[in-house]
Specification:
By secondary structure, the chain is α+β, with helices and mostly antiparallel strands. It has a single domain, classed as Jelly Rolls, CATH 2.60.120.10. The protein has 7 helices and 7 strands; from the N terminus they run ααβββββαββαααα. It has helices at 7-10, 14-20, 78-83, 104-113, 115-141, 144-159, 167-174; strands at residues 25-29, 34-36, 44-48, 52-58, 64-70, 90-95, 97-103. It has a 4-stranded antiparallel sheet. It has a 3-stranded antiparallel sheet with strand order 1-7-3. A hairpin with a 5-residue loop joins strand 4 (52-58) and strand 5. The chain is globular. The two termini are 32 Å apart. Residues 180-192 have low confidence and may be disordered.
């Protein structure tokens, strides 16, 4: 079953996932595709199989900083869908991939009917909140180089050694400016 490519969905009991499967569709998500805008009602919930979803806080003056990265180990939009709320961030595909996608109204109903699904979604939301808090702490306490290393390691965990990114993109995700006099260390080589 293709939905098992997402680690969260793979943790569901097989009979439950089989029951839920007809409510999901598989979508190919493109680089730069916007999944939600800040303060927009969440319409869909995404369980990535591959690629990376990025939650970005847009700053006044045109800047932005990434606060969370979601890959095959998570989901985006589930907690918002459970409460009928809006997206707190600009949410975009950082790395293209595929995902199991479900309408937010369906996931809310299914989570009410199936406590195992609701529990899994709440557990993931706690993990994601911890990731966001860790990012905030790192942004305040660590050097740009240390933050870049952490960010690259997380990307590597989610998509492997071939990281499709530019220096400018990495600088934007980390909320730093890249000027000719300011070099950002981004040499990542596959060892083998």
């Amino acid at each position: 079953m293709p939905h098992r490519a997402n680690f969260l969905l793979n943790r569901l009991p097989p009979a439950l996932l089989k029951e839920l499967a007809p409510h999901f569709s598989i979508l190919r998500l493109q680089h730069g595709q916007v999944l939600a805008e800040t303060h927009q009602r969440v319409q869909k919930v995404y369980f990535p199989h591959s690629g990376i979803i990025s939650c970005v806080v847009e700053l006044r003056g045109g800047g932005a900083i990434e606060t969370g990265m979601i890959g095959k180990d998570g989901a985006w939009g589930a907690s918002q869908a459970l409460d009928g709320k809006v997206s707190l961030n600009h949410v975009v595909m950082q790395v293209p991939g595929t995902a199991s996608v479900i309408d937010s109204d369906h996931i809310r109903i299914l989570a009410t009917e199936h406590p195992a699904l609701r529990s899994l979604l709440v557990q993931y939301e706690q993990f994601f909140l911890a990731q966001v808090q860790q990012s905030a702490a790192c942004n305040a306490a660590h050097t740009v180089e240390a933050r870049a290393c952490k960010w690259l390691l997380r990307m590597h965990d989610l998509v492997g050694p071939d990281l499709p990114l530019t220096h400018d993109f990495l600088a934007q995700m980390m909320g730093v400016r890249r000027t000719p006099s300011q070099k950002l260390l981004v040499n990542y080589r596959r060892r083998g």
